Amino acid sequence: MTSSTVPRPRRPAARPGVAWTLPAVVFFTLFALVPLLLVAVLAFTDWSGLDTPHFNGLGNWRTLFADPVLLHSVWLSVLLTLLGVVVQTPLSIALGVWAAGRQRNRAVLSAIFFVPLLLSATAVSVLWRALLDPNFGIPSELGWLFGDGNLFGKQSTAIGVLVFVAAWQFTPLHTLIYQGAARAIPEVLYQAAAIDGAGRWRQFFHVTLPQLRNSVITSVILMIVGGLTTFDTVLILTQGGPGTDTTITAYYMYDKAFKSFDYGTGSAVALLLVLVATLISLVVVRLSGYDRMTGTQEGI
After folding, report:
1. CA-CA 20 to 30 A from 259: which of 73, 170, 189, 238?
2. Chain centroid to CA 94
3. Secondary structure letter of residue 84 according to DSSP
4. CA distance linking residue 275 with residue 17, whole number of Å
C-alpha cells in the first residue's frame, strides 16, 4: 500500500466559538434580563404610568400582603397548575405512546389531534367562550347535562372550564414530547419482556413508563411554568370572575397595573410571581432528580 492510499487521521471537530452565542445572549439580555430588572426597580416605586416614578420603599409590598385577594390569587394559580399537571400528564402519556405506534391511520388522526397546538391561546379562548356561552352555546342545548348552562357563574365550574381549555390546547404539545421519547425506546427491551411473558400492560408499566421518566419530568416542569404564568385564557374566558373566584396571580397583576394604573404594585406582583415560579421549579428539579438526570436509552 502506497503512502498516497493511507487514510489520513481525522482532525477532531472544533467546537463553535463563543461568538456563536452572542445573538442569543443579546436577545435574552434585551428581552428578559433588562425588563426583569426594570420591573424589580418599579416594584419599589409609586407610578401611575404617566408621571415620574417615586421611590416608596416597601409601600407596595405592605399593600399587597394586606390584600386577601393576593394570597387567594397565588393559591388559585397553584391549584390550576396542579390540576393541569394531573389532567394533562396521563392524557399526554397515553396519546404519545399510542401515536408512537404503527396503527392504521395513525398519522392522519395524530395530525388532526395536533391542530389545537397550532392555534394561539387567544383564538382558543375566544372559540371556547363562544361554544360555552350560556345563551347560545352548547350548554343552552344540553340543559340536562349543564343545568342552567352558566358555567362561568360558579367558581367550581369556571375553574373546570379553565382546566379543560388548557388541556385541550396544550396536551398535544406534551404528547409530542412523549411520542418522540416512546419512539426512541429500543425495541429489544420489548422483545426481552415478551420472552419473559409480559403482556402489553406489563410492558407499558415496566418498560415504557420507566423509559419515559426523564420526559415526564421535563413535561411537568413545562406545565408548571406555563400554568403559573398563564393569563390570556383567564382574561378572555372569565375575566377573573365570578367576583375574584378565578383571579390568578397573573390576572391580579394585570388588574393592578393596567386597570387600576398602579404600575408599582403591579410590578411587585410580577416580581412575586417570578419568585414563586422559580421557587416551585427549583423544588421540582430538586425533588425529581432532574439536575442529576442520566440517560435511560432515550435517543438511541
Report:
1. 170
2. 18
3. H
4. 33
